[in-house]
Amino acid sequence: SPARPADVVVIGGGQAGLAAGYYLRRAGVDFVILDAQEAPGGAWQHAWPSLRLFSPAQYSSLPGRMMPIPADGGYPDADHVVAYLTDYEQRYRLPLIRPAKVQAVRRHGDRLAVDSDAGTWHARFVVSATGTWWRPYVPHCPGMRDFRGEQLHTAGYHGPEPFHDRRVMIVGGGNSAAQILAELSQVAQTTWVTLRPPRLLPDEVDGRALFDLATRRHRAALAGQDAPGVGGLGDIVAVAPVREARDRGVLKAEPMFSRITPDGVAWADGSTAPCDVILWCTGFRPALGHLAPLRLRDSDGRIPTDGTRALAEPRLHLLGYGDWTGPASATLIGAGRTARRLATEIAAQL
Ligand code: FAD
Fold this sequence. Notes:
Mean pLDDT: 93
Number of helices: 6
Low-confidence stretches: none
Pfam family, one: Pyr_redox_3
Bound molecules: flavin-adenine dinucleotide
GO molecular function, one term: monooxygenase activity
Shape: globular
Strand content: 15-25%
InterPro entries: Auxin_biosynth/cation_transpt (IPR050982), FAD/NAD-bd_sf (IPR036188)
Number of strands: 17
Keywords: Oxidoreductase
Radius of gyration: 21 Å
Structural class: alpha/beta
């Protein structure tokens, strides 16, 4: 079918894409959101059932509509976020097309062509908001191919059932590792290994404080000043299950092993530990494969930007992914603030 014109095509219908949609709509811009998923909720649809947000609902909201407080009054889980995002896109009647996976964005005269399962669009601007869930990161470790047990990444973890009574090596020093360790240590023999000693925040500090810190850091960086404060969005928030695990004494991390053996892992000092499972809670990378034809990535795999606008392709904006596209823009509360600036900038140029 022939290519359709649009002022703006947003790629990705997770929280970042919805926040962009909210402000583009308010700015009166003609746009469409293409999302690869069958259903609303972005990556939150795929998270493990016990995941808890690191901020309370009041501090996890997109623009315009507060996230309801969960019935138990605690930190929201992933299903709660999916329900909120589902309601959000319906309430604002955002123009979503699903499933529509974008294979490529390419230059096409004065427009960008967006090729997807649902057809091609010719857009004056493209907003890429495809998140990171789709690119799990596992560091290379010598011997990993010879391991006879099971290896999986956070993205493939769906709860503790398959791990009963098994010896599980949990790798990673962030919130995912700590929350999964808290849960698995109740049914499995767990060992926790981290590259650096993990940082557990005091009980009264949650994602709000980390978000404020991310914002102050971003401002300082823009002003050429030194980064203020210590801590960051990777620090471990003491949500209830993590507090309980700490009080049980299981939040004790070993240094990272240096190689994997067929039956377990080995450290540089010669010590070894057998295990049945290695669970890599080692994070994610931006899902930017659809932008490959534009050839914009630097050696770190990022696309250099001024705010959200790609330096080498001013018709392309990036939203979410990490602090480099806006302070805490890969969090629920941070996405809105970055999206507002993005929509203002695009509307001014149209
Ligand atoms: P996503 O939710 O991944 O949405 C992107 C959408 O784009 C998806 O629907 C995807 O299918 C689609 N897509 C991808 N590629 C294409 C393509 N080529 N074409 C079309 N569509 C495509 N943040 C918080 O604020 N609080 C928390 O407590 C918190 N906890 C987290 C815990 C974990 C374990 C993780 C991984 C993240 C957490 N985050 C948290 C961070 C962040 O809020 C999430 O990563 C969030 O899902 C990012 O939203 P997004 O819209 O950028 O990406």
